[in-house]
Amino acid sequence: MPGERFTIDGGGTALVLEVGDDGRLHQMALGHPATMAEPALPTVIYPLAYPTFGEEILREPALRVTHADGAVGTRLVFHAAAQEPHGHGQVHRIELIDRVAPLTVTLCFRTWPRHDLIEQWVEVVNGADAPITLHQAASASPALPGTDPHLTHWGGGWAHEWTETTERITPGTKTVASAGGVRSSLHREPIVLFAGEGRATETEGSVLAATVAWGGDTRFDAEMGMHRACRLIAGAQHRGAERTLDPGERHVTPPAVLAWSDQGIGPITRALHPWVRKHVVRDGDRPRAVVFNNWETMFFDLATEPVNAVIDGAQRVGAELFLMDDGWFGSTHPRDNDLQGLGDWMVDAQKFPDGLSGVIDHALAAGLRFGLWVEPEMVNPLSELYRDHPDWVIAEPGRERREERQQLILDLCRTDVQAFVIEVIDRALAMHPGISYLKWDANRDVFEAGSTALAADRQAHLPMDRVRATQEVMAEVARRHPEVELMACASGGGRSDLGTLRWFHEIWTSDNTDPVDRVRIQWGASHLLPSMVLGAHVTRWGEKPVAFGCAVAMSARFGFDIDPRAMTDDELEVATAAAASSKRIRPLVQFGDLHRLVSPVDGPRAALAYLDPAPVDASDPEVPCAVVFAYRLEDDGAGTPDGQQGIAVPGLVGDRRYLVEDATPGSAEAGSVFQRLGSELAATGVPWPADAAPSARVWVISPEA
Ligand code: DGJ
C-alpha cells in the first residue's frame, strides 16, 4: 500500500523502505538510526530498494530476467509484507511482483540488533507456466549516501591474499568480483567497505561493510550514477551463471551481511567478530588449539620415524595438536609429489607400513591431538580413482581437460561423487578414531565448467550448483562428525568466506607465512574474520627471526610449521615461551575486541590490540585485560608514526592503574613490568619496538590489584 513503511532495525545498522505512490519500493534511509537522515521528501524521489533491468535503464540492475514471453524488462511493485521473530531479531519478507509477468521477488532481511547488522537475501519465484532465464539476482543493493565515496577492497592471489586497495568512486561502475569458483577469495575477498565522505579511518567516517556469505565467486558493483548517486550491488557472481527457472521454481540468493558505522571501521569489526563467533563459525566459544603443522617442515617426505621426531619437537615447544599434511596416501601412484595420487585415500604402505596408528598413537601418547590433511574434492589424472571414474570430473564434452597443479575437480553435482567424498572422510575417521581435526584443502579453480549431472541447457547452473553441493557435503561431514574440527584451506585463504566458515572451525589464512607479509595479510583478514579462525604459523618462510615470527603468529590462532630438529636451542626456547604466552593471552586474542591501531597497509609499522569485551574496570585484578602487538616491518629511522612516542591504547579506565608487562618473545626484557594509569596509556601509550626491523613488542596489560 502506498506510504507503507518498513524499518529494518539491525541495531546500529538500519534500513528504511517505503512504498511510493508509484507502487514501487524505495529506500528512504540507511545508517545508524540515531544519526541517519530522516526522510522528508516525497517517497518516489528516493532510490529503488531493488533496481531491475528495464526499470532504471540508465543504471546497473540488481535483477535481470528474460520472461517466458521473451520480454527482458522487469518492473516490480510492492505486493505484501510479513515479519516474524527469529530468536535474535526479526525476519522481514517484502514481496514484490512484476507488473505483467508472474514473477515474485521477495526481499528478505534478518536483523541482528545485538550485533548491529542485517543479513539480506532475495528469493525469486517463477510463477509462469514456462521457464524463464534469471541472468542475475543480487543479494542486496543498498543506495549509499555521501559526497566523496571511497571503496576499500582486498585481493591478490596465492600468497598475496588480503592486499588492500582503497580508491575513490568516480562516475561509472567499479566491479570487484572473484572467479574460478573454488578458491574465490584467493583472488578477491568477499567483503568491501564503502565510505561516503572520503577515506574512513578506524575511528572516523561513516562506513558500510558488505560481505556475501557464499563459498563461490562473489561480485560487488559500486556504481556512481547521475547526480553522483551511489549504490552497491552485492551478491554471487552472475557472469556465466545464468539460471533457467522452471515453472514454480524458487531461486534463493546467498545472504549479504550489511554493517554500518558512523565512527569509522573499527566498530564494524567489533560488531562482526562476535557475531561470526556466535552465529557463523562452528564452536565459536571453544578456544582453538596451538597447532603444529608439518607441510613446510616435511612436504611429501613422510614416514613414521621422522614424523614422530617432529611430533616430539611439537610436544617440546608446547603445541596441542599435530597436523599431518599432504603426502600420507596413495598406492599404485604414491603421493610423493603433487603429480599423482590425489583421490586414492588409502594410507601409503611404503611410508607407513603399520598404517597411521604409529604416528597417531605417538601424538596422543605425547599429549597432542592428531589432525590430518585431505583434499577430497580433487583428483590427479594419475590415480586409481581417475582410472576407474574418468567421468567423475568437471569437464565439457569433447573439450580438453586442462589441469592445474596436475589435478581435476570432482563433480560434486553428481550424487555418486558426493557419496564418495563423504565416504572418504567417514572411512579415514573410522579407521583412525584418534583423529580429531581435518585440514580440508582445495587447490585449483574451475576451467571447463561442465557437469554430466546437469542437462545440456542447464550447464550454466554449475557455478552455483557446484558450490551448493559442496556446502551440502561439508554440512553432512559436520553433522556426522560433530567433534572433529575442520580447517578450510584452498591454496591458503581461498575459502575465506562466511558461507564456508559455517561448516568449519578455522581457515588457513595464507600459505605466505613470512611474518612481515603476514602482519599485512592478517590485518586485512581481520576486517571479516575474528582472530580465532585465522591460522598463523611460525615457519622459515622469509627467513625472519623465530622470535619475530612468534610475535606475529601470536596475534592470531597460534601455531608452528617449522622443523624442530633443525632449530637451535635458543629458537626452541623462544618458541616454547611463545607457545606458553600464546595460551595465556588466548582468551584475549581469540575472544577479545580487536582495535586496529596503526595500519601497515602503506606504512612500515603496525599496531593492534585485543581488549577484554567485559567492562575493563570489573575484570579481575592481574588477569590480563588487554594485549598490544607492535611491529616494525621496515626500517623507518628513529621516528614514529605521527611523531607519537608510543602506541595509544584505547578502552581502558582513565583513573585505574595497570601493570604493563613486556611479553615480547625472545626479548631480554620479557617479564619486566611497569605501571601506568589508563589515562596515560590512552595518551602516551606503550612503546614501539626499539630494534631495527623486523622487530616486535608484545605488551600484556592487567589491572593492578
Ligand atoms: C596447499 C595448502 O595451502 C598448503 O598449506 C598445503 O596443505 C598444500 N596444499 C599441500 O599440498
Features of the shown structure:
alpha+beta; Beta-galactosidase, Chain A, domain 5; Immunoglobulin-like; ten-stranded antiparallel β-sheet; eight-stranded parallel β-barrel; 13 helices; 38 strands; binds (2R,3S,4R,5S)-2-(hydroxymethyl)piperidine-3,4,5-triol
Give a quick precis of the structure.
With 705 residues, the protein is α+β, with helices and mostly antiparallel strands. It has 13 helices and 38 strands. Helix 4 runs parallel beside helix 5 (357-365), helix 7 (415-431) packs parallel to helix 8 and helix 10 (515-525) runs parallel beside helix 11 (546-553).
How would you describe this protein?
There is one protein chain. With 705 residues, the protein is α+β, with helices and mostly antiparallel strands. Among the domains are: 5-279, Beta-galactosidase, Chain A, domain 5, CATH 2.70.98.60; 593-703, Sandwich (Immunoglobulin-like). It is built from 13 helices and 38 strands. The strands form 8 sheets. Strands 5, 6, 7, 8, 11, 12, 14, 15, 19 and 20 form a 10-stranded antiparallel sheet that branches. Strands 21-22-23-26-27-28-29-30 form an 8-stranded parallel β-barrel, surrounded by 5 helices. A 6-stranded antiparallel sheet has the order 31-32-33-38-35-36. α7 (415-431) runs parallel beside α8 (462-480) and α11 (546-553) runs parallel beside α12 (569-591). The structure holds (2R,3S,4R,5S)-2-(hydroxymethyl)piperidine-3,4,5-triol (DGJ). (2R,3S,4R,5S)-2-(hydroxymethyl)piperidine-3,4,5-triol (DGJ) binds next to loops. Residues 295, 325-326, 373, 441, 443, 489, 491-492, 508, 511 line the site of (2R,3S,4R,5S)-2-(hydroxymethyl)piperidine-3,4,5-triol (DGJ).
